[in-house]
Amino acid sequence: MSSLEIPSTFAMEDVRRTVLDNGLVVLTKEVHTSPIVTAMIWYRVGSRNEELGQTGKSHFLEHMLFKGTERFKKGQIDLITLKNGGGNNAFTSHDFTAYYFNFAADRWDVALEIESDRIINCAFDPEEFEAEKKVVIEELKTGLDSPWGLLLQEQEAAAFKVHPYRNPIVGWLQDVERATVEEQQAYYRRYYHPNNAILVLAGDFETDEVLTKVERAFGSVPAGAPPPPMLLKEPPQRGERRLIVRWRSKVPRLAIAYHAPQIAHVDSYALQVLGVVLSEGKASRFYQRLVEREQSVTFVSAEYGESKDPTLFHIRAEARGDHSIEEIETSIYDELGRIAGGQLNEHELDRAKHQMEAHFILSRERTLDQAILLGQIETLYDLDYIDSYLPRINAVTAADVAAACSRYLNEDSRTVAVLLSDGSEPVEDDESEAG
Amino acid sequence: MKPAELGVRRAFEVHSHVLNNGMKILLVENPSLPTVSLNASVLTGARYDPESKAGVAIMASRLLDEGTQTRTSFEIADAIESVGGAIEADGSFERVVVSAGVLNKDVPLGLELLADLLMRPIFPQEYVDKEKERTLAEIASAQDRPQVVAGWAFNELVYQDHPLHRPSHGYPETVERIERNDLLDFHEKYFLPNNVVLAVVGDFRVSELLPNIQDTFGSWRARPIVFPTYPEPVRQSGKRKKFIRMPAQQLNIYLGHLGVRRTNPDYYALQVLDTILGGGAGFTARIPQRLRDELGLAYTTFASITMTAGLDPGRFVAFIGTSPENMRLATEGLVNEIRRIREEPVTAQELQDAKDYLTGSFVFSFESSPQIARFLVHADVYGLGFNYVVKYPEYIRSVTIEDISRVARMYLDSENYTLVVVGPVDGAQ
Q: Whole-structure pTM over 0.95, yes or no?
């Protein structure tokens, strides 16, 4: 086996981790290639923390954080971003909620002022809340109009019976419709504290100077009560689950999900390698078999992503021509059986490792990407994960991949979701006025 | 805080060369990461496809890596993926792009594969058949996305007989008609060194790379090219409307008309206009502020005329995705904002904010090697000049309130437009 020759260029020695007295974790990384600073704040709250009947709260909260505080009125955050030639956005996942600003290095401090204000002073104007609810509902509907959005939502709800990963991040429509500003505000108070947050700064600055600014901006924000722990655990699945979703499409789609472990689990590295072996690039197993040889799909993907709690290993494929879902499934299971049976060769394994290594380097060029990596890993697990990642991937053997494949990707722990036509047809109407 | 005065600080020296066969080489050393980004653009595309065989350019692009005189499809994939690199071939209306990302030590391999794909593709019959089937399947799959269906219908109505009326990958019936010989002809006609721009950005030395490029591409023979011509697209008079019923949660609404070329001297004034009307940071522009933030009609709504400006005129598009009961409110909202920016001058504050945004955020377009490589090709194709990174803020700063009113009246129309609505139109109000 060849070893990975390139040293990790994501130099963790440049990263400094500081904890303020109020518990705020501050991660700083100087990057002097462009005069840019990315400022992110991460909260350890996402849809996994939501109670039944109250789904979608974390995501809704993310929207409300742009609707103003006493100091920064509605619209001000975007306006400040505009005037300073910056960019801002936010995203919510099962495990976290994150906000970012990208600014030129000579004017980025305003991000600290905004974040240290809205961590505690979000306004929750009832009128703004109701107006934004409509926007959130439109966002939710956009997701339902996407075939994969709908299919994966139904699949997750079937694969998890107990764990909140069963709920869509944006929430169930019925929950969002009935959400109240009081509940939303209580949720904010429970989870938005410096001791439940991570500030990540990456870019063109001097660390010591920046830490003084951070202390000035955030030092006086009081720590909150520790958020309640999330105790729900998914019981083991005892047999295949299967579901059909009827939709307007004529193209059948297949989604297979297997229960898989959380980030940094000893088997998680082999599962990541497995995902790449199966579907990354045209030389990969699924591509060669399903797209090239059997021509039964337009695309096929296999993916295992890092998450806080035990998660799913996803396989997705879109049927092509007259090929049936049964035929595609059979080939997928056959290929998995071969790998579990030890038929993965060293060349394939090496290729996958090189792809993962290069991806790790190539995808960290922008300061925003670096800040996302740091924030995500600190939120989900521990920063040590970053340094140990490539060595651990490199240590994965063909036997490890076979063992992980057979242990996790087996019939009894899979949920198979199929999207099939509901028989509807589009109808067109033309109308024109001659001018 | 003083307004944005930010240049692109990173050393950005462009080494520009023309090989004896006419191939343009643009190189930028960027050692911030041990990687190299290569982008070879052939200056042809779906705009030149014959109507009866629409889809030739895109199909040819996608078959470039499916077999050459020296390598099989699998050998190409395996060679690049085994070193952790990636190579991609794809086309658009005006370009065929072969791009690769590799670690610095693998640049020779990257170049060799690029040359192989550009100079020696063989379009194996087996893969032509596969690609046809696959394209048909992908068209069928794309029909499931209301926003895509709306975009296609919108282009048909706006461009009429102009080549941009069709999807770049063609229609099912034209894709069926494409033969291997059409692809070979396409390659023979346009894939010539005098029609290629190669941009390489990343961790290398020009003095070492340039001789390597010369060796790799020097033997490629130049030939004159005759490009097909077609009539100018015509701005519509009157309204054109189309409603496509599809069971869905939301209506996808496109409203607009023919736009401008990238080389239009008013491009920069229009960029400022776009920022005020439908783009910018967050929801600061008029359309998202009014229709999303105030009325709660949509999650996604925007407008732009510069986004699609290319060698051919692009489109002015105002888009909103909204629940069916909001159709009238949403459509009127879009038209009102178009009318308002035509009839009333923008405020000095709006103008200043938009300029600060555009000049300040310009730097974010040059953060990574692939971005810089794409920019180099872009700058060459549209004749922007490599001092563009210095010039751009000046272009933007010179725009006045009067310019905005003038270009709004000249290029936007709140009466003569195309409206396409896709979704549950029966429940629409």
A: no
